[in-house]
């Protein structure tokens, strides 16, 4: 069941790992990145899932068994500085180029192990990384799914700009960096809430600052994706507020992508409406195969 080229790793946090899902570690330029792996008995293909800002592989913990049930092996990994993945020191170690190099390295390992290109899915900031990885190494990618991930900077409203300005202040304030006063000190009884608390404490502040800088200034790569020709899918919840909904629609039109709106969901449709999300992404992957 375990990918033989990837080493076993202890789970992160108190959430139970579902049957059929294994915790492992993958090598990348950042160092050791932790991952979750599920293998379908007779897979259609293999997917690589990249989490977003403040996230980790645990964002996909519940969806992985649903993907396997539908015939898809999948690997979800925590990016550099997230949860228990390697966390290089300094915000300058968290440029888009750094995240993209990690994604390419993981995709190369997964493709070599599973025998072919992978279906790449990026959630929110993970979609920004997935775009960059695809444009670097298109032969590794069978399809691209941009999940709640817009084509340009996320700080498109005054509210978003204020949020990212606060992160810049955090970077300049050593006392706040040490104290993390926004995170409760007492453990939560609920395993999911406690995982989120532990993740907030474990995630590198350099990661948060670096990603905030990327999200507030990232270049729109839509034209390059359109010219690339890899099958693409833009999927998001009907109540998503990360990027304006009209930007998702425009992005899908510009790159000739399939567009799916998940009902009863916002920015994390894989957890808010998992059955509909799993149906939508696996149907697209089959069509791309």
Structural class: alpha/beta
Give helix % range: 40-55%
Taken in chain order, the helices and strands follow as EEEEHEHEHEHHHHHEHEHH
Strand arrangement, major sheet: 1-2-3-5-4-6-7-8-9
Low-pLDDT regions: none
**Oligomerization state of this entry?**
single chain
| Largest sheet descriptor | 9 strands, mixed
Approximately how much beta-strand content do the residues carry? 15-25%
| Number of continuous helical runs | 11
What is the CA-CA span between the terminal residues?
23 Å
SS elements, strand count: 9
Radius of gyration: 18 Å
Q: Which whole number gives the mean pLDDT?
A: 90
Shape: globular
Detailed description of the structure:
With 289 residues, this protein is an alpha/beta fold. A nine-stranded mixed sheet has the order 1-2-3-5-4-6-7-8-9, with helices on both faces. Helix 3 links the parallel strand 6 and strand 7. Helix 4 packs antiparallel against helix 7. The longest helix has 19 residues. The model has no long low-confidence stretch (mean pLDDT 90).
């Amino acid at each position: 069941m375990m990918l033989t080229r990837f080493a076993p790793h202890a789970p992160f946090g108190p959430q139970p790992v579902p049957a059929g899902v294994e915790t492992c570690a993958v090598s990348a330029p950042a160092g050791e990145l932790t991952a979750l792996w599920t293998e379908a008995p007779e897979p259609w293909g293999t997917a690589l899932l990249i989490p977003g800002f403040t996230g980790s592989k645990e964002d996909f913990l519940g969806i992985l068994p649903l993907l396997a049930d539908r015939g898809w092996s999948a690997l979800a990994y925590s990016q550099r500085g997230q949860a228990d993945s390697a966390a290089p020191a300094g915000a300058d170690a968290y440029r888009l180029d750094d995240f993209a190099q990690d994604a390419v390295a993981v995709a190369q390992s997964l493709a070599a192990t599973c025998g072919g290109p992978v279906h790449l899915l990026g959630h929110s900031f993970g979609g920004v990384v997935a775009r960059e990885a695809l444009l670097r190494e298109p032969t590794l990618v069978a399809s691209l799914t941009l999940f709640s991930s817009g084509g340009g900077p996320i700080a498109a409203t005054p509210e978003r700009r204020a949020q990212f300005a606060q992160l810049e202040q955090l970077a300049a304030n050593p006392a706040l960096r040490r104290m993390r006063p926004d995170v409760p000190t007492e453990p939560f009884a609920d395993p999911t809430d406690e995982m989120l608390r532990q993740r907030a404490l474990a995630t590198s502040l350099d990661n948060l600052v670096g990603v905030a800088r990327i999200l507030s200034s990232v270049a729109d790569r839509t034209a390059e994706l359109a010219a690339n020709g890899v099958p693409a899918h833009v999927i998001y919840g009907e109540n998503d507020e990360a990027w304006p909904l009209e930007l998702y629609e425009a992005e899908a039109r510009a790159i000739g992508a399939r567009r799916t709106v998940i009902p009863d969901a916002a920015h994390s449709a894989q957890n808010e409406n998992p059955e509909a999300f799993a149906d939508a992404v696996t149907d697209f992957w089959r069509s791309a195969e």
